[in-house]
Amino acid sequence: MLAFYADHFVLPLPPGHRFPMRKYSMLRDAVVREVSGLELHEAPRAGDDALALAHSADYIADVSAGRLDPARQREIGFPWSHEMVERSRRSAGATIAACRTALTQGIAVNLAGGTHHAYADKGGGFCVFNDAAIAARQLQRDGQVRRVAVIDLDVHQGNGTASILRDDPSVFTLSLHGEKNYPFRKEASDLDVGLPDGCDDDSYAAALAGALETLKTRFAPDLLIYLAGADPHEDDRLGRLRLTMAGLARRDTMVFDFALSHRLPIAVAMAGGYGNQIENTVAVHTQTVALAAACHARYSALDTGFASPVAATAA
């Protein structure tokens, strides 16, 4: 299974900053040790033409040149730097690459990504460019897919993704999140499932099963983009839910089984994770990658190829 990484494009942060930048290099080390059958590739760089599929030209230019005013930079949560811009472009490029790979191999992984709080004209919540929205539209523009579903299981609602894609019937946005958690002003996804604080494994699994059934009933995608946040974990300092490692494994397995049962290619991004112990966040992400690799093996055993659905229809 192919996995795309960008952890060596380090975003410099001041001492004591709460974003766990180290988790990305720790994750790459962990999956190399613990997940067999991985083929790691450096994340490609998303250019302005790709970013413009989801973001305004002025916003892209202001971010790239460091012209954001202090308020907009604070909303992102990172100090501006050339490294911030490069890493954000690589993160978007990795999700595009994972989507393209999934079309032929069934599944692929971005070892970062899931930057779902970025709007068309502003960033937020440690998100600069919205990789899922960019990737969905890039593959549509390339003629590789017509319809994409974004399954966002980060603990925080995918407000930026919902906003960017609100009037786009060709992309279905599903967000399962903490109802009382950030962002406190939610946007309208195609399907929002708000969860109470303290939600446990069984309650979460029941809510996810219902959401996937609704997705199946309402939309027929050619591709899934899965944001597998680690922050529903019970140790997460920002999550407020109570999922165990076993519960998160059940979550991932449910999504991968959904993809397999419908013969849908799926690209996976890591999204958020802010454990009291960074090792716990890395363990959740590593478990997701391991389950994705197992899903890849099951895809490989199918007698159905994963050539472009659009090309197959045209043929």
TrEMBL record:
SUPFAM superfamilies per the UniProt record, alphabetical: Arginase/deacetylase
Xref: PANTHER family: HISTONE DEACETYLASE 12, HISTONE DEACETYLASE HDAC1-RELATED
Keywords: Hydrolase
Keyword Hydrolase applies: yes
InterPro entries hit by this protein: HDAC_classIV, HDACs, His_deacetylse_dom, His_deacetylse_dom_sf, Ureohydrolase_dom_sf
Tagged with keyword Hydrolase: yes
Record-annotated Histone deacetylase domain positions: 22-285
Gene3D superfamilies, per the entry: Histone deacetylase domain
MF annotations from Gene Ontology: histone deacetylase activity; hydrolase activity
Protein name per the record: Histone deacetylase
Species this chain originates from: Cupriavidus pauculus
Family: Belongs to the histone deacetylase family.
BP GO terms, sorted: epigenetic regulation of gene expression
